[in-house]
Design brief:
Blueprint: E1 2-4, E2 18-21, H1 31-38, E3 45-47, H2 59-72, E4 75-80, H3 94-106, E5 116-121, H4 128-134, E6 142-143, H5 146-158, E7 163-166, H6 174-179, H7 187-201, E8 207-210, E9 226-230, H8 233-241, H9 244-252, E10 255-257, E11 260-263, E12 269-272, E13 284-287, E14 296-297, E15 300-302, E16 313-314, H10 315-327, H11 331-334
Length: 335
């Protein structure tokens, strides 16, 4: 376990799961300490916003830190214990209640779990009945005890999640259909095939790294899995034209980044970018953008749908190609 606190410099958290402890601090017992102890045997990151020393508190940096790791978290744990002591001028758990509403609003429990949110509220918390009523439309149980809540958090952190890669779906794009010579009679047929192919192999709990040029983002609601988006040139162009589009992307996808470095099942680091020209040649790379025109390069592999039968590819499939590129293919492949 690696515990992240507001004093911890930002770290790459893509190599293991991350849980954010999102319940109250002021007026509450130090339940975060108990949670860290109860999860200590897991190979995970724990983001704990509680500071041991309030003397170094900076409001702006605290909010920025919390926002960063709430976005990156695989599981957000909301435990709201009964109030232990009164903080004058402050409503108990006011920030936690706001964050709970925010992340429930951002999460589509009915289709794609951008975040796995676990909620536990002590029966002696006076606002519990209202929160339960407001959460009725979400298939998300509210636990009564800390032990029930932490047990569910452990279950989610230890369940098997498959990793997939894809790129350049271009949902809704006539241009992609025509110029990439896709074998569909219409854009509607293309969209349906992409959605069907995706959902046949990706389960709701799985993670998909989409390396840009997603297309019409309304299609994300039809797709299984937690989708992390690496910005493609179409997304970047849209953001440059309308800065609000970045917020739309962040509200749609589990994570939005320009590039990322992750650790794969073979223990090696993998660089993710949209364009191969943005690859990091110090490691192996996954990229899109070129629509299958050169599936394999010395330094990486094109995960785009045009190179991979119009569906995401599993991490195992990707690593098989990685092994072949590094150890088997001769110069004729790249000539």
């Amino acid at each position: 376990m690696i515990v992240l606190t507001p004093n911890t410099p930002p770290v790459n958290v893509y190599d293991k799961k991350l849980v954010f402890l999102a319940g109250p601090i002021q007026g509450a017992e130090n339940w975060q300490k108990d949670a860290i102890a109860d999860l200590a045997d897991l190979d995970i990151y724990v983001a704990n916003p509680r500071r041991d020393n309030s003397a170094d508190f900076n409001y702006v940096s605290q909010v920025e830190w919390e926002t960063l790791y709430l976005k990156k978290a695989d599981v957000i744990m909301f435990w709201i214990p009964a109030e232990s002591y009164e903080v004058k001028g402050r409503s108990y758990a006011q920030t936690s209640r706001f964050e709970l509403g925010e992340w429930l609003g951002r999460t589509d429990f009915n289709r794609r779990l951008n975040k796995k949110i676990v909620i536990g509220i002590d029966n002696n918390f006076p606002g519990k009945r209202y929160i339960i009523k407001r959460c009725e439309k979400f298939p998300c149980p509210i636990f009564d005890t800390y032990r029930q809540t932490i047990t569910e958090v452990r279950r989610l952190l230890t369940e098997k999640i498959n990793i997939f890669f894809t790129s350049d779906t271009h949902f809704g794009s006539e241009r992609a259909l025509v110029y990439s010579h896709r074998p569909f009679s219409s854009v509607d047929e293309m969209n349906k095939a992409l959605v069907d192919n995706w959902n046949k192999i990706v389960k709701p709990q799985d993670t998909v790294w989409h390396l840009g040029d997603f297309g019409d983002i309304s299609f994300a609601k039809q797709l299984n899995g937690n989708i992390n988006l690496i910005l493609g040139n179409y997304e970047l162009d849209a953001i440059a034209y309308n800065s609000q589009y970045l917020q739309d992307l962040q509200n749609t996808f589990a994570l939005v980044e320009k590039n990322a470095v992750i650790t794969t099942a073979d223990g090696e680091t993998l660089h993710l970018s949209h364009k191969p020209s943005d690859a990091d040649r110090t490691m192996f790379n996954a990229f899109g953008h070129i629509h299958g025109l050169q599936k394999c390069k010395h330094f990486g592999y094109d995960v785009g749908v045009d190179a991979n039968h119009f569906r995401p590819i599993s991490e195992k499939y990707f690593l098989d190609y990685k092994n072949s590129i590094i150890n088997c293919y001769d110069e004729n492949v790249f000539y």
